[in-house]
Amino acid sequence: MNLYQLSENFSTEIEVTDYFENVRWGKKPRCSHCGSDKISKRYTDFRYHCTTCRGRFSVTTGTQLENTNLSLRKWLMAFTLISNAKKGISALQLKRDIGVSYQTAWSMYHTVRTFMTDGSVKLSGVIEVDETYIGGNPRKYQSAKFKDKEPFAHEYLDKKIEKLGKKYTFENPDAYKKKGLLEDAPRGRGTDKTPVVGIVQRSGNVVAEVMKITDFAHIRPMVEQYVNMPDSVLLTDAYSAYTRFDAIMERIVIDHDKMYSYKGLNTNSIESFWAIIKRGIMGQYHSVSDKYLPNYIDEFCFKYNNRKYDDMFETLVFNSMLPPDFTPKDVDSKMINVRMGKKRAKVLA
Q: Which positions are tagged coiled coil (predicted)?
């Protein structure tokens, strides 16, 4: 779904409501309270009256969107903008595009992220496993690599400050005084960054999870859950946490101290996925807290897994119509495929 199609097909709230009702009930609406089909015609406030239980309900009653105060048309706009942005969009951009407050846009985006699932994922074949670390680099005043050149640079800059300082006010000049050299900040393991473990099938889907401890005891349950181990081979780097996988399944090690690729043996697919995440966070979100990082990871996984299909929008709509106590991750992938149409079900069969 693109913006042109959205404006052509859903120009009024009535058309949007009809679409949501068709997704949820098909041709015949039913009471959201008792399931009866003995209901009145839809009123102007988009609600029905059930003659069996005498309750009133709308298409959002008993769904993930039950308590929303926004129009369904705004939700469709949000679904379209978010699903079409490969690396995401900021809440401020969403605010400007659909005309809501920043707090509302931020809340909407996090709600949409809970819809971003294809159900259960099972990987097989050539499987790449790797971990990455997400978070900003520790701020440092000066890099140690400049220590031999600093005296000359300071002499030049001090002269400029002395000459121009009376006419111009520089932003907090004291902040630029030398406070001692710091070594380059460490990267990856051993830092305070948040670890994320990812598993990707070559030319297939990916799963990723935030994991506080990246050792064998924590990575193994994830591999067992998502990988068809008898029919798969792992490609990993030389990290010691993967060594014990040799005893339970086939594994090939690519030692990155010696090479990155050899005759198709590499971890480039998972590395490319990490690049998408980090560019999305740096370019759109700038920073992500540990509390909400799993939601952002789910978003990037969902978009990566749906990159070959054009039904990402429909999947979001379908998941939004699930009961509020029903987590979209509990939806079986076959159920979604049947609901979304024959084209994708045939591809994934």
A: none
Residues of the chain with CATH 3.30.420: 123-278
pLDDT score of 70:
94
Which pLDDT value is given to residue 338?
40
Q: Which amino acid is at 203?
A: S
Global pTM value: 0.79
Whether the Cβ atoms of residue 121 and residue 226 lie closer than 8 Å to each other: yes
Supply the Cα-derived Rg of the chain in whole angstroms.
26
User: Which option is the CATH number for 123-278: 3.30.450, 2.60.40, 3.30.420, 3.90.580?
Assistant: 3.30.420
| Confidence at residue 239, expressed as pLDDT on a 0 to 100 scale | 92
Taking each helix axis from N to C terminus, what angle separates 333-340 and 312-320, rounded to the nearest 10 degrees? 110
The answer to whether 83 touches 312, Cβ cutoff 8 Å, is: yes
- Helix axes of 293-305 and 102-114: crossing angle, nearest 10 degrees: 60
Chain position carrying tokens 């079409």: 84
* SS3 of the chain: CCHHHHHHHCCCHHHHHHHHHHHHHCCCCCCCCCCCCCECCCCCCCCEEECCCCCEECCCCCCCCCCCCCCHHHHHHHHHHHHHCCCCCCHHHHHHHHCCCHHHHHHHHHHHHHCCCCCCCCEEEEEEEEEEEECCCCCCCCEHHHCCCHHHHHHHHHHHHHHHCCCCCCCCHHHHCCCCCECCCCCCCCCCCEEEEEEEECCCCEEEEECCCCCHHHHHHHHHHHEEEEEEEEEECCCHHHHHHHHCCEEEECCCCCCCEECCEECHHHHHHHHHHHHHHHHHHCCCCCCCHHHHHHHHHHHHHCCCCCCHHHHHHHHHCCCCCCCHHHCCHHHHHHHHCHHHHHHHC
For 248-268, the pLDDT digits (tens) are 999 999 998 888 888 889 999
